[in-house]
Design goal:
42% of the residues are buried. Strands 1, 2, 3, 4, 5, 6, 7, 8, 9 and 10 form a 10-stranded antiparallel sheet that branches. Helices cover 32% and strands 16% of the residues. The protein has 10 helices and 10 strands. Bound molecules: zinc ion. Zinc ion binds next to loops. The site of zinc ion (ZN) has 7 residues, from loops.
Length: 360
């Protein structure tokens, strides 16, 4: 397992020497965001809610957001964003954030809920919780502040944010005060934008990054060595295709990075609601309609397959044209690459199957 340099916050860490440049060969891309270690985290899990109950789950969540929104004046899409962000944290830290089954993903540790010095860490009495400077509140009016009750949880968070005000900047300051973490603020604001734009919670559809009817080929290359830029491993899958084949978003998400990188060339990074960062590199160019901070939908064109990268801005043709596609999971502190190959296979198959269905 290894840690990847935060892409979004501090940009790409560059390791490049004259010797590495001289060692450049044109054989095959070994590209992607830079890292300098040798092992990789693997996961084939897709966090998408895809059960027959999905609709009911989304409805339950939405009614809770609406209820607390009415009381606190915080728009539902911001409450939804906080809840979803916390849900992604629980997925990567299940042991630290253990809680009973419930509708919401928000987690507040007992020390914070009941107060660090409270001798009763399971305290549900709002008065004694307040005496010990705990933050737990009674949201549903049953006289108890229960940190495993959905309404109490959401109300407690919302009540802490509401006094900051409802302009986006004020709300961000409230988030900063609550999480003390810039990444948390960025994620919640990204998610809020997605929910506000689409007006629904069900935003987990996927698409294959290239049109399935185009000519392309790919195989699993995750974790292989690279031959350019020092000791790095390949954190993604190379999809070989001709120049100009459209590169499409694989998910609903927000454009987090767009521009030139020495390794990835013209590259774009999209953040999704599972807190995955989708990285597309070596593009020929970007679709004119795509700007930093925009929301995108699955299948939307981001740019075109090219061979940019491995040098100063505009460098191209150092290797055959292809899309380098990688996925990184944000753990709240770091980002970890995982192998996108099984997901690519899955999305490709689903799309081919649905195309067949619409034809018949
Ligand atoms: Zn690659």
């Amino acid at each position: 397992m290894r840690i990847f340099q935060p892409l979004s916050a501090s940009g790409i860490m560059i390791r490049c020497t004259a010797a590495a440049l001289a060692a450049l060969t044109a054989a095959c891309c070994m590209c992607g965001p830079v890292s300098a270690s040798a092992s990789v985290a693997t996961s084939t899990a897709d966090d998408t809610v895809k059960t027959t109950d999905a609709k009911a789950i989304f409805e339950d969540r939405k009614s809770l957001y609406d209820e607390i929104s009415t009381v606190t004046q915080i728009p539902w899409y911001r409450l939804a964003a906080i809840d979803q962000y916390e849900r992604t944290l629980t997925r990567v830290h299940p042991k630290d954030r253990k809680h009973p089954d419930r509708t919401l993903g928000i987690f507040i540790p007992s020390t914070r809920w009941a107060g660090a010095l409270n001798p009763n860490q399971e305290d549900v009495n709002p008065t004694s919780i307040s005496v010990f400077s705990g933050i737990g509140l009674d949201g549903d009016g049953d006289g108890k502040a229960d940190r495993n009750n959905d309404t109490d949880l959401l109300y407690t968070v919302a009540a802490r944010l509401s006094p900051y005000g409802h302009a986006a900047d004020d709300f961000s300051i409230g988030l900063w005060s609550y999480y003390q973490n810039t990444r948390a603020v960025q994620r919640v604001m990204q998610y809020a934008k997605l929910y506000e734009t689409f007006g629904k919670l069900d935003l987990f559809d996927h698409a294959f990054p290239l049109p399935v009817k185009s000519n392309y080929s790919y195989r699993s290359t995750f974790g292989m060595g690279r031959n350019w830029g020092g000791r790095r491993v390949h954190e993604g899958t190379d999809l070989f295709a001709n120049y100009g084949v459209p590169v499409r978003s694989t998910c609903y998400g927000v454009v987090e990075i767009k521009g030139w990188n020495k390794y990835g060339g013209w590259r774009i990074g999209i953040r999704d609601l599972n807190n995955h960062y989708h990285y597309y590199a070596h593009l020929q160019g970007f679709d004119k309609g795509i700007s930093l901070g925009d929301v995108v939908t699955p299948g939307q064109t981001l740019g075109w397959v090219g061979s940019s990268g491995y040098g100063k801005p505009g460098t191209q043709g150092k290797f055959p044209p292809h899309l380098h596609y990688g996925i990184y999971r944000d753990t709240g502190l770091n980002e970890w690459a995982f192998d996108p190959y099984p997901l690519l296979k899955h999305w490709e198959m689903e799309e081919k199957r649905s195309k067949k269905k619409t034809r018949s």
